[in-house]
């Protein structure tokens, strides 16, 4: 269904790795709603080549950028401005990577060099993107920036490991920069806290299958699928949500406000006949 909610809008989408990626689905949804796009990912991810399929589907150029490299980000915004013949109306930050998780380090035994990289890639990268745009004045008035996060920022999910700290930092950057960019240019910045979703990053979390099953049982509406997350992103990029900023918005089928559900109780203690 298309209502052309993003007609005339131009956006940069970070983080489409393969067709399971939330960013991939969001790019498709934004394109269907009339947006013009630039796709970007880390050079190592581009070498997989998958993104070219998406680029063709949404008629967008692909510009490589390691989100921890300020020169790459500057080039990305310069080339996007050329491509769009002006500024950007929206940005999706859909990036996450934990070196300690990847290398099997327990939270109590973090390697701090890896931890620094995790926080840089997964959280401070939002600051880097916003700062680059700020210095180049690359985001248009009433522009919208969305970053993806997870409820482990507020509550403990032990296997989420150092990514819990990364998400807490990411959400804080969204608030703090949201204030600055709101005052300066009415640019809004929000995070969407998404249900567990089967993607490359998601499946890296230990015990992911049990995790996703538990969340499904705990959510009155069930886990929110990636396609629905893409639709939520579209709404936040559209003019229908112009006064929403500095928020962490739960997109989780009601998980975050459910104490316990009958489905979970029944799975622990089946009802007696
Ligand atoms: P994904 O693995 O498809 O996407 C992660 C992306 O981050 C990849 O495209 C990867 O290339 C990119 N990336 C990693 N290092 C980078 C770097 N240095 N520079 C630029 N890009 C880099 O997985 P998914 O799930 O679509 O992840 C997107 C976002 O959604 C992440 O922030 C993730 O934490 C978040 N999220 C995911 C959930 C899940 O269960 N899958 C739940 C809640 C939030």
UniProtKB/TrEMBL annotation:
Belongs to the short-chain dehydrogenases/reductases (SDR) family. FabI subfamily. It catalyses: a 2,3-saturated acyl-[ACP] + NAD(+) = a (2E)-enoyl-[ACP] + NADH + H(+). PANTHER family: ENOYL-[ACYL-CARRIER-PROTEIN] REDUCTASE, ENOYL-[ACYL-CARRIER-PROTEIN] REDUCTASE [NADH], CHLOROPLASTIC. SUPFAM superfamilies: NAD(P)-binding Rossmann-fold domains. InterPro entries: Enoyl-ACP_Rdtase_NADH (IPR014358), NAD(P)-bd_dom_sf (IPR036291), SDR_fam (IPR002347). NAD(+) binds at residues 15, 21-22, 66-67, 95, 167. Its EC number is 1.3.1.9. This is Enoyl-[acyl-carrier-protein] reductase [NADH]. It comes from Flavisolibacter ginsenosidimutans. Transmembrane segments: none annotated. Keywords: Fatty acid biosynthesis, Fatty acid metabolism, Lipid biosynthesis, Lipid metabolism, NAD, Oxidoreductase. One of its GO terms (molecular function) is enoyl-[acyl-carrier-protein] reductase (NADH) activity. Pathway: Lipid metabolism; fatty acid biosynthesis. The active site is at 150 (proton acceptor), 160 (proton acceptor). It comes from the Bacteria. Gene3D superfamilies: NAD(P)-binding Rossmann-like Domain (3.40.50.720).
């Amino acid at each position: 269904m298309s209502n052309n909610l993003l007609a005339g809008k131009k956006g940069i989408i970070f983080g489409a790795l393969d067709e399971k990626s939330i960013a991939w689905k969001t790019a498709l949804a934004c394109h269907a709603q009339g947006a013009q796009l630039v796709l970007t990912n880390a050079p190592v991810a581009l070498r997989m080549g998958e993104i070219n399929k998406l680029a063709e589907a949404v008629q967008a150029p692909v510009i490589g950028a390691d989100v921890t490299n300020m020169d790459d980000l500057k080039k990305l915004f310069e080339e996007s401005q050329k491509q769009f013949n002006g500024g950007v109306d929206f940005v999706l930050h859909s990036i996450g990577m934990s070196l300690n998780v990847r290398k099997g380090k327990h939270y109590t035994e973090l390697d701090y060099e890896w931890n620094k990289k995790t926080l840089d890639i997964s959280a401070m990268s939002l600051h880097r993107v916003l700062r680059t745009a700020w210095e180049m004045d690359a985001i248009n008035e009433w522009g919208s920036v969305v970053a993806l996060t997870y409820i482990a920022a507020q509550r403990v999910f032990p296997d989420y490991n150092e990514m819990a700290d990364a998400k807490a930092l990411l959400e804080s950057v969204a608030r703090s920069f949201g204030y600055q960019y709101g005052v300066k240019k009415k640019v809004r910045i929000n995070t969407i806290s998404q249900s567990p979703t089967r993607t490359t990053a998601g499946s890296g979390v230990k015990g992911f299958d049990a995790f996703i099953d538990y969340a499904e049982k705990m959510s009155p509406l069930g886990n929110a699928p990636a396609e629905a997350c893409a639709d939520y992103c579209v709404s936040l990029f559209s003019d229908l949500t112009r006064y929403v900023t500095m928020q962490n918005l739960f997109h989780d089928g009601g998980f975050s406000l459910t104490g316990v559900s009958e489905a979970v109780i029944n799975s622990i203690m089946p009802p007696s006949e």
